[in-house]
Amino acid sequence: MIMNRHQNDWYPSNISGGQVFPYMDHAVDAAYYFMRDNTSVVDSSNTNGRLLHPFDISGIRSDFPILQRRVNGKPLIWLDNGATTQKPQCVIDALREYYQEYNSNVHRGAHTLSKEATDAYECARRKVQMFLGASAIEEIIFVRGATEAINLVAQTYGSTNIRNGDEILLTMMEHHSNIVPWQMLQKEKGAVMKVIPINGRGEIMLDEYEKLLSSRTRVVAITHVSNVLGTINPIRKMIDMAHRYGARVLIDGAQAAPHLKVNVQDLDADFYVFSGHKAYGPTGIGVLYGKKGLLEQMPPWQKGGGMIKNVTFDGTTYNNLPDKFEAGTGSIADAVGLRAAIDYMQKVGMDRIEHYERSLTGYAMQALSMIPGVNIIGTAPDKISAISFVVDGVSPETVATRLDREGIAVRIGHHCAQPVLQRFNIKSTIRASLAMYNIREEIDMLANTLYKITKDY
Ligand code: PMP
After folding, report:
1. Which of 104, 125, 206, 439 stands the most exposed, by the fewest C-beta atoms within 10 Å?
2. Which residues of 261-295 are buried (b: 16+ CB within 10 A; e: fewer)?
3. Which residues are within 8 A (CB) of 270 and not within 5 positions of it... i.e. 6 or more apart?
4. Can you tell me the distance from the alpha carbon of 148 to that of 154, in angstroms, rounded to the nearest whole number?
5. Cβ(361)–Cβ(382) below 8 Å
6. Domain ranges in the chain?
7. Of the options 3.40.640.10, 3.40.50.300, 3.30.70.20, 3.30.390.60, the CATH number for the domain spanning 91-347
8. Is 234 exposed, middle or buried (0-12, 13-18, 19+ CB in 10 A)?
9. Rounded distance between C-alpha atoms, residue 359 and residue 365, angstroms
10. Is residue 275 lining ligand 1, measured as CB closer than 6 Å?
11. How far is the CA of 253 from the centre of ligand 1 (A)?
12. Is the CB of 231 under 6 A from ligand 1?
């Protein structure tokens, strides 16, 4: 079932029935780069009444040079943040400085540059530890991204702990990266895969989840935030429920880490993964967090330099954490870039980012839900960033092409999450996904253009 415009939750209370589309006449000009006063954020809900400083949106936007670009003669409106985010100047500078001033391999050379690069790499690891609230630096493994992290866990923890008849639970809304590695393991081991259903709003059905859990459940793999529906899943509760049955839980935080404050100890997550490039950092770097006790028991994954203590032709002993899981030369510059990205997010404040983006997501939901012929898929009240929709009688390709002509970048397709689209009987959606630098005027432009598209077909 596709949820349509009947979701009253998203209707603005001050818009009367007659005043259907109040933002249609906005002139879009240079002024659109600056936020109106009412978009400053004073948080009263998420921080126990503590007053936050206003969210300096024009300052934030000016930190992202690419936002000055024009596309097809129009200012770029980047609404494809679920695929990858743009980078602030400090991340670009960190990469340039690394290559210009201290490029070197880490943990090896007996010289100044290697020491500097090693310090920077390990500082980045420390930064990630603080960002995720992990209890020890050894719990942070650098990988290429969320996909690689999940493969690592499935092929090490999974292959040593899953046996014939054991059960792996996944939700209906997982990204293929959190399905395929488990499916391959399941087939290899003769295990059973069970799927936690979702309701018509795109929320996990917790009572069904409870019924699926049993003493045979070994692993539960859940996305923190859906990349299609934007739903924020109740992972704290779901982790608790899984632990009661002795199962381990992997949280896919690819769409959460840039938007929500995460604390892996509060969550009691066994594994938590995310990708740097979706969190304002470079591509090629991502993070696997794992509880130390679990990582210590797991066999190494890739084998080679860096992950060994001693090698003879008779045998090899493996290095301590985290090196045991970091064979070969890592993405050193990208780790340094990720550190700069985390610094940036923390400077803005994760609680402020979350509050601002929740409000912007609500605004976009309202705007899109008011356009006749636009059907939103994923209407959970607790959602952030991703808004998927289809337009009656117009293909996603046509919609995306028309939007691109206006400089608006969205994503179309199955978003690497085909099962959740099958749940809603569709093959493809248009997805607008928001980040901290997006503004209401951009949403207005999106809605305005969509409205025109629906009129033209
Ligand atoms: N999980 C989710 C929820 C995602 O949205 C994505 C990226 N679209 C991934 C995993 C995979 O991330 P990456 O391609 O960076 O490994």
Report:
1. 206
2. bbebeebebbbbbbbbbbbbbbbbbbbbbbbeebb
3. 239, 248, 249, 250, 290, 291, 294
4. 10
5. no
6. 2-79+349-456, 91-347
7. 3.40.640.10
8. middle
9. 10
10. yes
11. 9
12. no
Strand (E) or helix (H) holding 316: strand 315-318
The enclosing H or E element of 249 equals strand 248-252
Distance 433 CA to ligand 1 centre (A): 13
The pLDDT assigned to 108 comes to 75
Minimum-distance ligand 1 atom for the alpha carbon of 174:
3
Return the C-alpha torsion angle 38, 44, 50, 53, nearest 10. Answer: -10
- Contact assessment for residue 260 and residue 233, using Cβ atoms and an 8 Å cutoff: no
Gap from CA of 60 to ligand 1 centroid (Å) = 25
Q: Using most ligand atoms within 8 A of CB, pick from 144, 150, 175 the residue to mutate for ligand 1.
A: 175
Pick from 179, 227, 434 the residue to mutate for probing ligand 1's pocket: most ligand atoms within 8 Å of its CB. Answer: 227
Would you give the end-to-end CA distance of the chain in angstroms? 23
In three-state secondary structure terms, 78 is strand
Q: Give the pLDDT confidence score for residue 27 in this predicted structure.
A: 31
In the block, residue with structure tokens 């906005």: 26
CB of residue 416 inside a 6 A radius of ligand 1? yes
Calculate how far, in angstroms, residue 254's C-alpha sits from the geometric centre of ligand 1: 5
Outline where DSSP puts E strands in 18-171. Answer: 70-71, 74-75, 77-78, 140-143, 167-171
Give the integer Cα–Cα distance in Å for 142 and 323: 9
Residues of the chain where predicted confidence (pLDDT) is lower than 70: 1-53
Q: What are the DSSP calls for 13-41, one per residue? A: TT--TT---TTTT---SGGGGS--GGGS-
Q: Is-contact 449 402, C-beta < 8 A? A: yes
Distance CA 248, CA 221 (A): 9
- What is the pTM for the complete model shown? 0.90
**Residue 383 pairs with which residues in a beta bridge?**
231
Which atom, in ligand 1's list, is nearest to the CA of 277? 15
Q: Thinking of the domain 2-79+349-456, which architecture would CATH place it in?
A: Alpha-Beta Complex (3.90)
Antiparallel, parallel or unpaired: β 192-196 and 308-312: unpaired
Structure tokens at 346: 């923390």
pLDDT at residue number 10: 32
90 in active site = no
With residues binned 3-state (H G I as helix, E B as strand, rest as coil), the percentages for the chain, rounded to 5, are: 40, 15, 40
